[in-house]
Design goal:
By secondary structure, the chain is α+β, with helices and mostly antiparallel strands. Helix content is about 20%, strand content about 30%. The model is unreliable at about 1-20 (pLDDT under 50).
Length: about 210
């Protein structure tokens, strides 16, 4: 049986890409210090959490001559798990408008083995947060997906000050990625949902993620 050379290349690329995603680099696991203990963080007493938080920023703030808006979404679970920078996808895995978030979440809940669900639970910035006073401190990991042009993992820490039960705002914090970019912080507003996906992300399967 003859296999086309290009097909062999594709098979090898898939194999190597898949392997890269399974092994967490040592600097990532060692740099992650907010281990998961499964305890209720008490965040429900400080914030509304039956939904997600969104920062809406006009493209004009980035110097573009456009009326479009950029959205940064975040979600916090009572067990200490959080996910940042997720966005709704259509059935082909393409990003769509934020208004379709409820439909996006319903598809994840109802079709747990779907491609959309797999992307949600295995990509995006999943992590763990702690609460200190009126501040949420989260450490999150960027995990490259198989097939992406980059295989670079990322880890960063972000802090949010609680303004009221429906509003939080990012505040300056240390960065595990040593980022130096200065920017204007905008408040994140609460968006309610009737149902949210569970926090059963890929991190929950990692031994190093859990407290010893």
């Amino acid at each position: 049986m003859v296999i086309h050379y290009n097909m062999i290349q594709l098979i090898l690329l898939f194999m190597f890409s898949s392997c890269e995603q399974k092994v967490v680099p040592e600097h990532i696991s060692e740099g992650f210090t907010y281990c998961y203990d499964g305890k209720d963080t008490g965040i429900d007493s400080l914030l509304n959490t039956d939904g997600y938080y969104v920062i809406a920023e006009p493209f004009s703030n980035f110097g573009y001559n456009s009326s479009d808006t950029s959205y940064f979404n975040m979600m916090f679970y009572s067990n200490g798990v959080c996910v940042l920078n997720f966005f709704p996808l259509d059935n082909k895995g393409r990003s769509i408008e934020n208004k379709y978030m409820p439909i996006f979440f319903q598809s994840i809940i109802k079709e747990r083995e779907s491609k959309t669900s797999s992307i949600f639970y295995n990509a995006y910035k999943w992590g763990r947060y702690i609460i200190e006073g009126d501040t949420i401190k989260a450490q999150c990991i960027y995990r490259p997906r198989a097939g992406e042009t980059t295989s670079i993992w990322g880890i960063n820490e972000v802090w949010y000050k609680i303004i009221n039960r429906n509003t939080i705002i990012e505040i300056p914090s240390k960065s595990l990625a040593n980022a130096t970019t200065k920017r204007k912080y905008l408040p994140a507003q609460f968006v309610p949902l009737t149902e949210r996906p569970s926090p059963d992300c890929w991190l929950m399967k990692e031994d190093w993620f859990r407290c010893k």
